[in-house]
Amino acid sequence: MSILVVGSVALDSVKTPFGEAKDVLGGSASYFSYAASYFGEVRLVGAVGQDFPQHYMNLFNEKGIDIAGLEKKEGKTFRWAGAYKEDINQRETLSVDLGVLEDFWPDLTDKYKKSEYVFLANIDPELQLHILNQIENPKLVVCDTMDIWIENKKNNLLEVFKRADIAFLNDSEARQLAKESNLVKAADKILKLGVRYVVIKKGEHGVMLFGEDTCFSLPAYPMRDVLDPTGAGDSFGGGFLGYISKKNDTSCNAIRKALVYATIIASFTVEDFSLNRLRTLKENEIKKRIEGFRKILEIENLTQSFGCV
Amino acid sequence: MSILVVGSVALDSVKTPFGEAKDVLGGSASYFSYAASYFGEVRLVGAVGQDFPQHYMNLFNEKGIDIAGLEKKEGKTFRWAGAYKEDINQRETLSVDLGVLEDFWPDLTDKYKKSEYVFLANIDPELQLHILNQIENPKLVVCDTMDIWIENKKNNLLEVFKRADIAFLNDSEARQLAKESNLVKAADKILKLGVRYVVIKKGEHGVMLFGEDTCFSLPAYPMRDVLDPTGAGDSFGGGFLGYISKKNDTSCNAIRKALVYATIIASFTVEDFSLNRLRTLKENEIKKRIEGFRKILEIENLTQSFGCV
User: Fold this and answer.
1) ipTM over 0.90
2) Structural domain includes residue B307
3) Is B30 within a domain?
4) A22: left (phi over 0), alpha (psi -120 to 50) or beta
5) B305 in a domain, yes or no?
6) What range does the domain containing B206 cover?
7) Residues 181-210 of chain A whose Cβ lies under 8 A from any Cβ of chain B
8) What would the pLDDT profile of B38-76 be if each residue is shown by its tens digit?
9) How far is B96 from chain A (nearest CA, A)?
10) How far apart (Å, rounded) are the C-alpha atoms in residues A180 and A174?
11) CATH of the domain at B148
12) Staple partner for B232: which of B3, B31, B76, B266, CB 3.0–4.6 Å?
């Protein structure tokens, strides 16, 4: 099934306690596309500037990602620079330059308008809405966001939440949006905004899923070496919607399984800078880690032991 | 099966954003005993002072806890005062007064020496060793500790770790003891100290189990209202060893199941101050929440979906 993603394609400069990388391929749509490409046909909607290296374009081609929707415009590519602390879960944004994304209102082709699965990656919610307005009959719309949009574009973001099926937020964003420190209560409030499910990403602590009648909690895959957490959340999204689209199943149980795949794809992403790890990642490596994760989660005969206090 | 616990029996004064309690029954052995009493025969070894109210003694009797090993000594009961921040996971210790625990070296009775399951709750590791030296043939020894013992009694603590089967630590203690910020690597180092398993408690983020050939990760039970987190870790220990002793099974899978029970018992503890919630807790409430937790963890046909990228 077809997946359309709109988001940033960026040149990132990243410092972590374990090294640094300058002007490497990044951005929410890049990470998402790479991750989702393991599962389905991905259409990337975004913009880069004249400074965007051709060999980065080739990286998308390598994975069969459809970049007919990736415009090369006059101006500069979106740039982000950040640094991670000794505690790798804490990051500081050093600089952001929107570049060509400041004025980007693409018209989708008829083919793109017919996309079945849509991921509104972390980007200005006005642009998310502009895309959503053009999609004719999506089977599932998932949106992601970040603190600056909650702070500065709340009304647009609330409109996105009204129309999306699933919202992705990290724990601090969920607390910020709901103005509620308890995550269960925050999820309640976010569900009232109109989404059917909210997925709260907690980084090294795993992920929680909340719906009207469901709650699911999944730990993270235990990592020994995290080189660079950049893109973990976006590739998590790619693994998630990739799996859903491949199965063409939006049931609650498919969503739970998709979160397992999302977790595993993200666990590979953080093993290297930029898309380096995902570039070399093979399907059998994914399968092997999924099987390892199953053993980590496993409790044999769980139901049999219950109720025997 | 019989469970012996040595630890503190305390008078706690606690402030949380939701209220406060003064001179209430607390201490690691109190919380442990209460939680374990749902599963087996609990023998409490500890000391209180002349100021310890008789009606607190009755609270142990109510649950059938054997307090023949709880000495009433000249002097004052151990007192702890603490405050929790707006973020309920952060706590500050305001004062500690060891009282009668400063000089407490009990001789166990023959009956106590034959105890099968032993929990060395958070207390001076010298006292933990003093108790351990008297146990004749334990089936399983579990130890808990805290930052001050890692800091001030490291050698005694290492001796405990050499002889215990399972070590309980929270995430910050594991990092402190191993001098390693990555929890997987920290667990590796701690296993080298001699324990067969290390259980790393992450509070609202769940728990991880590490052994030579095993790794298990379990999220916490999602809580809507946490009134007072005091005693969560100790009652977690009680639920854990209580379950193990009841099943008389120390296999890796039994340990995993025991961590589920531990999680659920701890989730009740934090719903009220002191032992208030555990006092009224009924077996059918435990069963119901266990079943709810099973649904929160559940991924139907997980194995079937694996390997189908």
Assistant:
1) yes
2) no
3) yes
4) beta
5) no
6) 2-300
7) 181-185, 202, 205-206, 208
8) 999 999 999 999 999 999 999 999 999 999 999 999 999
9) 29
10) 8
11) 3.40.1190.20
12) B266
